[in-house]
Each structure stands twice: as C-alpha cells, then as structure tokens.
Specification:
330 residues, alpha+beta, FAS1 domain, 2 domains, elongated, glycoprotein, GPI-anchor, FAS1_dom_sf
Length: 330
C-alpha cells in the first residue's frame, strides 16, 4: 500500500474537500497581498459577540473568512446566536452551514446598502454556496432589500415572498472594498440548512469536482461508509480527492489490479479525521506533527504532512516510518 500511495501522491491533482465540501476558492482579488483582516481578533474586542466568535473558531469558518478579501460578515449578538445554536440542535456541522450563509462573498457597507432599490431584492453569494453545501443557487444566496418602512432586510434567497429573517442593526467595521462586519437582528435560515451531509451529497460533490473515478471507488469498496462515519463525528472530515486524470497519469498505480485490502487502505489514506480547511493547512508549519489519516497505524505509518505551494493548492508529503521511507522513498 505504501508504494502505491507514494506513486499516486506524486501524480495526483489535489482537490481539498473540507468537511466534505469544497472550501471557498480564493480569487485573484481574494488572495491579494492587501488582506490583513482577522475576524476573530476583531470580534474579541466586542464581548457581546462572544458566542458568534466562539463558533467561528470551533468550525474554522474564521480561517475561510480571513483568507479572502472583499467579504462581509453578518454577525449576531449573543441572544440571536443562542437562537441559531438552538435551531441547529447545537450540532457543529449545522452551525458551520449557518455561519457560512452569514458570510457574504462581496463587500457591503452602509453606503452600498443605501443604494439598494426600495422593495426589490438584490442577491449576493455566500461562503455556503462556494463551499458546495447549497443544493441550488437560491439556498446558497442571501437576498437583501431596502425596506419601505426604512432599514434593510436580509433573508435566504430560498425564502418565499418578501419576508425577511433579519434586519440591519449597525455597522461594526467597514474597510472599503475589503472587509465589512455588520450586525443583523436575527439568524438567516431556510428549511434544510441544518441537515447533515449525506452519502448522496458527498458523491455528488466529488463528481461535480471532477473526481468521478474516486467517488466510484469509495462507493464500490465500502470506504464511503467509513467517510460517512467520520462525517457524523463532531470533528468532521477532510478529503484529499484525486481528479480523474490523476488515475491515468504516468506512474500512477493501476487501481483495478490492486488487491482489495491495499485499495481500501489507499482510499482511507486520502482522508483525515477532522475538519482542516485549505486556509488552515496553509498555516501549518513544517515542524508540525504529521496528520493522522483513516489509514494511519499506531506506529504512525501512513500519516501525512502538508506544505503550501505557490497558488491555491496544497501539496501532501508522506510521513511514514523509517524502514518504509527506505523501501519506498518518495
């Protein structure tokens, strides 16, 4: 298995599926050198958002927000956040969905809100949509409007009619074109937001990302059930999923001829038990302990290290025992 894993690692094009969903990809603007905001550091100076800040950290959505420019975060005071946590059944994965829905992929300050047309909806994309959690474009978007009675309303684009879950309360931070933090009065939700990831949604996500071969292999070998079990854990799951062309690359092992036990181990090797979004992996130091995979042994075989590369990808490197390193040098 180790030899096959090393070969496949060398040729694979990695697509990071953080917590079984695509982490929001950074655009050229989003990864500009000017990014300097830190949402958790900012909110730490505002104790009335302690719960919101806590869950940003626990879900690691803060890392996704900090990795981009041109974003707006709709924050909730502790009272409204308690409502959201209750609606989510205190499930961390469900809360993460909601926090991503409250993070907008565009810069909105009070000046831009005032320019909205009165009584007409304006849609804006969210981190929830970019992460692949939305079944439709409507469930991944937030609608905003200038209300006829004054103020601004916010709701999921999937919400019917002109009802709005939340209204604008105040602006906490406005760094023009880069980073805005706005308080809203109540959680933005829709039916299905708090549903957990299913086997169907995972395979659909993999296929959409160009990983159809990988999706078929984990289904046929039963490894998909291992992934699902890890997904059900509060710690979450991270997949390093090879795209289809990786299986045809020179030097890649012929998975059709691999013994079943080796293939199962190889597929489990591509999964980390825990949620590690791309921005978090980029911050891992070279001296850090390697990550355990679903294939890791008690002795540390089949662990992985990560190292950042130029651009938006993260490469992986094997961290295995000495005798395996000699026999199967990368």
């Amino acid at each position: 298995m180790a030899g096959a894993g090393a070969q496949l690692r060398r040729v694979v094009a990695l697509v990071l599926l953080a917590c079984c969903s695509m982490a929001p990809a950074a655009t050229a603007r989003g990864m500009s050198a000017g990014i300097a905001h830190n949402i958790t550091s900012f909110l730490s100076g505002h104790p009335e958002y302690k719960q919101y800040n806590r869950y940003l950290t626990e879900t690691r959505v803060c890392d996704e927000i900090n990795a981009r420019g041109g974003v707006t975060v709709l924050v909730l005071g502790d009272g409204a956040m308690s409502t959201l946590v209750s609606d989510a059944g205190a499930d961390l994965g469900a809360i993460k969905n909601a926090l991503r829905l409250h993070a907008l992929l565009d810069y909105w300050d009070v000046k831009k809100l005032k320019a909205l047309p009165t009584g007409a909806d304006t849609l804006t994309d969210t981190f929830y949509q970019a992460a692949g959690g939305a079944a439709t474009s409507a469930t991944g978007s937030v609608k905003m409007a200038k209300l006829e009675g004054g103020g601004f309303g916010f709701a999921s684009a999937a919400s019917p009619g002109d009802a709005y879950d939340a209204t604008f309360t105040k602006a906490l931070k406005q760094t023009q074109y880069d980073f805005a933090v706005l308080e809203v009065s109540a959680p933005i939700e829709f039916d299905g937001l708090f549903d957990g990831p299913s086997v169907a949604s995972l395979t659909r996500l993999l296929e959409k990302a160009g990983c159809k071969r990988f999706a078929a292999l984990i289904a046929s070998t039963g490894v998909l059930k291992d992934y699902q079990a890890a997904m059900a854990d509060k710690a979450g799951l991270t997949l390093f999923a090879p795209k289809d062309d990786a299986f045809l690359a020179k030097g890649a092992p012929d998975v059709d001829k691999m013994p079943r036990a080796d293939l199962v181990a190889l597929l489990r090797y591509h999964a980390l038990p825990g949620y590690n979004p791309r921005p978090s992996l980029k911050l891992v130091k070279a001296s850090a302990r390697p990550f355990r995979t679903l294939a890791s042994t008690a002795g540390g075989k089949y662990n992985v290290r990560t190292k950042p590369l130029q651009g938006s990808h993260t490469d992986t490197a094997l961290a295995i025992s000495a005798h395996h390193s000699r026999r199967h040098a990368p």
